[in-house]
Amino acid sequence: MTTVNVPAGWPATEEEARAVQDELRAEVVLDEPGPQPGTGHVTGVDVAYDDARDIVAAAAVVLDAASLDVVAEATAVGRISFPYIPGLLAFREIPTVLAALEALPCPPGLVVCDGYGLAHPRRFGLAAHLGVLTGLPTFGVAKNPFAFTYDDPDAPRGSSSPLLAGGDEVGRALRTRAGVKPVFVSVGHRVGLDGACAHTLALTPRFRLPETTRRADSLCRRALQEATIRQRPTSASAES
DNA sequence: GCGACAG
DNA sequence: ATCTTGTCGC
C-alpha cells in the first residue's frame, strides 16, 4: 500500500473546483468505441472514508475481462482532499485513486468507477475526470440516479432506458439482474455508451453491481481498517 | 428562494 | 460514504 498527500494546488473551494471541471471538460474524448467487452483488463476503483480521522483509502483491482479473475490489486491511503459536495465528488476521490492506479504492477486497461461520467451537472463527473487525467478509457456505474430522470427499464436483465438531464441522454439505467433496481451507467472517456453497458453486463454475471466495484469496494474497506489500526493501535494489534 | 443531490 | 448482528433465503 502507498501513501499520498493532497496535491499542491488542489482546489480548496467550490468555485475553484468548478473552474477546474469547466476547463478539463474540453479534454474528454467521446468518439472512441472503447475496448472490446470480454478482452484485456478491466479495473475497478473505489474509495472508503474515515472522516473523523481524516483518512481516505482507495483500491484498484484488475480483472481479466474474460474470466473475471483477479490479476492484480493495489491500495493507497491519504488525507481527505475535499468535502463531499454533490457534483464535486471527484475532488474527494481522485488523488488517492490515482496513487492506487499508479501502484499497480500492470496496465489497468478499462477503468470502471463508482459514480458518474457525463451524467453530471457540468458533464464532467468522476469517471470523465479520471479518464482525462490518466488518458485511460473509463466509465461510471452508479447505484443511484442522482438528480436525473429515467423510466424504469423492463424487468429482464439487459433492459435499459435513457438517463435524462433535461432532453439529453447522459447515461443509461441498466437492469443487471431481472426485477432488481437498475444501475446507472455513464461514459467517462474513450468509451461509447453501448460499450459501457456491454461491459457492465459482462461484469454482472451474478450480482447487481459489477465485479470490479464489488472487489474494489471490499479491498478499500480493508485498507481503511488497516490504516485506522496503524494510526490508533488496538490491544489485538499490539499483542502480535 | 430553498431543498435535493454520485460517494 | 457511514452507523451495524443476526438472519432469511437461494
UniProtKB/TrEMBL annotation:
One GO biological process term: DNA repair
Catalytic activity reported: Endonucleolytic cleavage at apurinic or apyrimidinic sites to products with a 5'-phosphate
UniProt xrefs under InterPro entries: Endonuclease-V
Gene3D superfamilies assigned to the protein according to its UniProt record, in alphabetical order: archaeoglobus fulgidus dsm 4304 superfamily
GO cellular component, one term: cytoplasm
Pfam families, per database record: Endonuclease_5
Keyword Cytoplasm carried by entry: yes
Signal peptide: none
Major place of residence: cytoplasm
List of residues binding Mg(2+): 46, 114
Locations listed in the record: Cytoplasm
CDD domains assigned to the protein according to its UniProt record, in alphabetical order: Endonuclease_V (cd06559)
Cofactor: Mg(2+)
Documented EC number(s): 3.1.21.7
GO MF terms held by the record: deoxyribonuclease V activity; magnesium ion binding; RNA endonuclease activity producing 5'-phosphomonoesters, hydrolytic mechanism; single-stranded RNA binding
Protein keywords: Cytoplasm, DNA damage, DNA repair, Endonuclease, Hydrolase, Magnesium, Metal-binding, Nuclease
Site (Interaction with target DNA): 84
Function comment: DNA repair enzyme involved in the repair of deaminated bases. Selectively cleaves double-stranded DNA at the second phosphodiester bond 3' to a deoxyinosine leaving behind the intact lesion on the nicked DNA.
Family: Belongs to the endonuclease V family.
Listed name of the protein: Endonuclease V
Organism this protein belongs to: Streptomyces humidus
Name of encoding gene: nfi
